Amino acid sequence: MKILQLAGSETVAEVADRMGVAPADVVRVGFERLGLMLTLAERRDRPEIVRIGEAFGYRVRFAGDGPGA
Fold first, then answer.
1. Per-residue pLDDT tens over the stretch 39-54
2. What is the 3-state secondary structure (H, E, C) of 2-20?
3. pTM for the whole structure
4. Rg of the chain's alpha carbons, rounded to an integer?
């Protein structure tokens, strides 16, 4: 599983960019697979960002989390 390191305050579009996927794909997967209504400019809470990352094969870590996070 790939690691996605985030500061914790990124927008949906920034998360998509960090994963190297099209922002529209994040919106689509968020809706179709996770039941989330996403817009590109909004910031989501950590649990939702983790779910989004996992849907694309990433383990999400946030700045300040311990090494075992």
1. 999 999 999 999 999 9
2. EEEEECCCCCHHHHHHHHC
3. 0.87
4. 11
